[in-house]
Write a structure and sequence with these properties.
The protein has about 850 residues and is an alpha+beta fold. The protein has 5 domains: about 1-35 and about 170-285, no CATH class; about 45-170, no CATH class; about 325-460, Sandwich (Immunoglobulin-like), CATH 2.60.40; about 460-655, no CATH class; about 665-845, no CATH class. Helices cover about 25% and strands about 20% of the residues. It has 19 helices and 33 strands. α2 (about 20-35) packs across α11 (about 220-230). The longest helix has 23 residues, at about 185-210. The radius of gyration is 33 Å and the shape is flat.
Length: about 850
């Protein structure tokens, strides 16, 4: 900032705030967190009852006793009344007017404590019982009904007319915006207080200059503003002294669409702030973070479990060791340049990177310069809070298409991330840097104005990759897709983001359990760590799985309770698994291309989080497991491994259909002996006269009849996989909803194929037969209906190897991303392999 801007900032900091807003902000966040665990107070009958109690009981009690000399200590406000009082005070002008109208003065909270602070409520309860003998002090939030609110209270023309229901609705989303780790940091909050004073200073300047401007705060400023308003007497006094009036808090507008009041106001506030103070208005950790994720359940889960430190059995204490990493969020803007050499021609931009790339940020990214482009460009990224950010000033001329060839480095500079985390920095820097020139000398060094802001470091989630350990023809690959077969003798290696081996796991038959249960389908999961130690991580007993010596357990049955979760994982915590990406993993608009059926979200429910807290996300397609909580790392790995095995047996779509078989379609849950080494994944014969599928979208539906043996190589990761071979007849198939990959063969001989291999052959299908009639009444994809064929098959859909091909009415199938019709052999293609040709010409080997 220049001298004038520095004086403006110093003048802003002279504004007097008579309350400790840093402490008040922390108390407010604690209170809002408690309210968020009682979301029945956001709407409905509980909210109406709370408003009634607030107006009828709490305000009169405060008016009578708040300044009483008879009190031995502060009053304690009931939680429901405190929430309504909170929202009422956040319209300071309306609150002041209501209090003065009905009680002759502003009712303050100077001698009132929040119930969430754990203070003694005995004195207040005694006063409450004496004044209101028929009304309990604590509201039973599980037993409130609309009819319990006296109708005359709702229509009372003499009462407070301010729409408190709407006020609560407007304030309910606020907690999500401020529930970030930085908001708990003293360094961050001290800077927020200074910025709040700067915000008030802008409003003061506008008033002095008769400028009508809708000033919009960032969320760190807004947190301080709310904290100030919650002390109504102090707020009114401080505002009158600073601005000459009580500042209104307009929270009615929520439309952030470009060109609307909120968007225009924020743009104008940003411009005025930066012109007045020479500092950036944006701040990492303080900006709008989008709408809150959708809730999983409507009513809170009444769990007996309270989140606490989980101590696993001694044998599992040291099973896996994963380095803990931290990251920060960074906002970066290149504001301007000065001392450009005379006679220089061309435009400028900046490359920025880290001198020591890390797992979060290892790129070299381009950023335009505000003074050059005339548009604000702010880069947002995550990185480890170590090392240095490195900047290269680039000059280029000519067409944008030739930038990479014509650009040259004019100078470089760097900044230490560790220095930015020093408390003295306030987690931000907004200043000029002299550049070290690459060549030539200048009378004055080129300088670049760089603005950067950080959040406080937080522990990063563990990101684990499940990779098949068996070598394959091209390369290794991620864990196989659900619905396909994994070789029982292969190991799966789990590695972290840096590629370090964490553990190797394997599914195998449990002879011990077979002997006990006299059953041939018992399984166990074995884990081997780098030290050579071997552990039985999980065992199945019937439909029940026991993890880590019965420390956790879950049953292979989809539940039908609210929230539509698939499994419950039980231990000394309660974890439910939901299909798709939920809560904090909920995809943004730009991420919705991925199929939600590929994901599972593990959500913990407890007294602390009755609406659920996401602890992990499992990507069944790529084999990636993201774990937020340290205690869930090993259970998360085991779950990802076991559930993939479950889905490939039961069929993913069939399982999602409430765990029941699709009508008329048999789903096998057992492996077929010998299916993994070139044998078929499944062998089926049977007769189906008519099949009607009335449910929603189904995938890979197979309806065979009257056939000989058929099969293929299934779901191999590193080999052949996922193929299906069928022979039979189908008289009629009616499909009344969207279907994918429908294969309906008839009257054929043996057929088969290699499928879905990752790194090898994959995804192909081979069919032979006839179909009398197929009625498809909605959108279909990749429907294959062959007739009267001989043996056929194909290799397909491989990633890193041969993929995606299909061969029909052929002697042999093909490898690769194309279709070969009426040919001897298929073609090569796929992802990472050869070709991708889709020619129909006759092919030779």
């Amino acid at each position: 900032m220049d001298k004038e801007q520095e004086l403006e900032w110093l003048e802003a900091q002279k504004i007097v705030i008579s309350k400790d807003l840093v402490a008040a902000a922390k108390q407010q966040l604690q209170f809002l967190e408690t309210i968020d665990r009682n979301r029945c107070l956001y709407e409905g009958s509980v909210l109406h009852r709370a408003i009634y109690r607030y107006k009828t009981y709490w305000l009169p009690l405060v008016a009578k006793y708040n300044n009483s000399q008879d009190l031995e200590g502060p009053l304690v406000v009931p939680l429901d009344c405190e929430w309504v009082w909170h929202c009422h005070r956040l319209n300071p002008i309306q609150y002041k007017s209501d209090c003065e109208k009905f009680y002759g003065r502003i009712l303050d909270n100077c001698n009132v404590l929040s119930t969430v602070r754990g203070t003694c409520k005995k004195q207040t309860e005694e006063i409450w019982s004496r004044l209101y003998p028929g009304e309990p002090f604590e509201l039973d939030m599980s037993n409130c009904f609309p009819e319990s609110i006296p109708e005359k209270i709702l229509k009372d023309s003499e009462g407070i007319k301010y729409d408190l229901v709407s006020a609560v609705k407007r304030q309910s989303p606020f907690f999500y915006q401020v529930s970030r780790p930085s908001m708990q940091s003293d360094i961050f909050l001290e800077q927020a207080l200074a910025r709040y004073k700067g915000f008030l200073h802008l409003i003061k300047r506008n008033k002095e200059r008769s400028i009508r401007r809708f000033c919009v705060p960032t969320y760190d400023v807004d947190l301080m503003w709310h904290s100030h308003q919650l002390h109504p007497v102090s707020y009114c006094k401080d505002m009158v002294e600073a601005l000459g009036k009580v500042l209104e808090h307009d929270d009615v507008d929520s439309d952030r669409t470009k060109g609307q009041k909120l968007d225009v106001g924020f743009s104008e506030t940003t411009k005025q702030w930066e012109e007045t103070f020479g500092l950036r208005y944006w701040r990492a950790g303080a900006m709008y973070r989008g709408s809150a994720p959708r809730a999983l359940i409507v009513t809170p889960y009444t769990s007996k479990y309270i989140s606490k430190e989980v101590v696993p059995p001694n044998d599992y204490q040291e099973v896996i060791q994963i380095p803990k990493a931290k990251y920060v969020e960074v906002f970066l803007e290149i504001v301007g340049l000065r001392n450009i050499p005379a006679g220089h021609r061309g435009s400028f931009f900046v490359f920025f990177s880290k001198k020591q790339p890390d797992n979060f940020f290892n790129a070299r990214r381009r950023l335009n310069i505000f003074s050059e482009s005339g548009e604000k460009h702010v880069a947002a990224f995550q990185c480890e809070p170590t090392g240095e950010l490195f900047f290269e000033l680039m000059s280029h001329s000519g067409s944008n298409l030739l930038i990479s060839r014509t650009a040259k480095i004019m100078g470089t500079t760097s900044m230490s991330l560790r220095d930015l985390l020093d408390p003295a920095s306030g987690l931000s820097l907004d200043t000029w840097f002299e550049l070290a020139t690459v060549s030539g000398t200048h009378s004055k060094p080129i300088s670049m104005h760089i603005a950067v802001s950080l959040t406080v470091p937080v522990t990063a989630p563990h990101v684990l990759h499940m990779i098949h350990s068996r070598p394959c023809s091209m390369s290794s690959c991620f864990f196989p897709l659900p619905g396909r077969v994994q070789h029982a003798k292969n190991w799966t290696c789990v590695v972290d983001e840096a590629g370090n081996d964490i553990i190797n796991i394997q599914m195998r038959d449990s002879r011990k359990l077979e002997a006990i249960n006299n059953c041939c389908s018992m399984k166990e999961v074995i884990g081997i760590v780098g030290s050579g130690g071997s552990y039985v991580l999980a065992e199945s007993v019937g439909t029940k799985w026991s993890l880590m010596d019965s420390h956790w357990s879950f049953v292979l049955q989809r539940t039908s309770s609210e929230g539509d979760h698939l499994f419950e994982l039980k231990g000394n915590r309660m974890v439910k698994l939901f299909s798709g990406r939920k809560l904090e993993y909920e995809p943004k608009c730009c991420e919705r291309k991925a199929s939600e059926r590929d994901f599972l979200t593990a959500v913990e429910f407890s007294l602390e989080d009755p609406y659920g807290k996401a602890v992990a996300m499992i990507n069944l397609k790529s084999g990636i497991v993201k774990v937020n909580e340290e205690w869930f790392v090993l259970p998360g790995i085991i779950l990802a491994f076991v559930l993939s095995d479950i889905f490939r047996k039961a069929g993913y779509d069939s399982f999602l259909a409430s765990g029941e078989n699709i009508k008329g379609v048999t789903v096998l849950s057992e492996d077929v002996d010998g299916c993994n080494e070139g044998g078929g994944m499944e062998q089926k014969t049977g007769i189906v006269k008519e099949v009607q599928v009335d449910e929603a979208q189904k995938s890979s539906t197979v309806v065979p009849e009257k056939g000989g043996a058929c099969g293929g190589c299934g779901s191999g990761c590193g080999g052949c996989g996922g193929g299906s071979g069928y022979a039979g007849t189908v008289n009629e198939v009616k499909v009344e909803a969207q279907k994918t990959n429908m294969a309906v063969p008839e009257n054929g001989g043996a057929c088969g194929g290699c499928g879905s291999g990752c790194g090898g052959c994959g995804g192909g299908s081979g069919y032979a037969g006839t179909v009398n009639e197929v009625q498809v009444e909605a959108q279909k994809t990749n429907t294959a209906v062959p007739e009267n064929g001989g043996a056929c098959g194909g290799c397909g859909s491989g990633c890193g190897g041969c993929g995606g091909g299909s061969g029909y009415l052929t002697k042999s199938g093909g490898c690769g991303g194309g279709s070969k019709n009426v040919s001897k052999n298929g073609g090569c293609g796929g992802c990472g392999g050869c070709g991708g040709d889709s020619s129909d010409k006759l092919a030779q080997k």
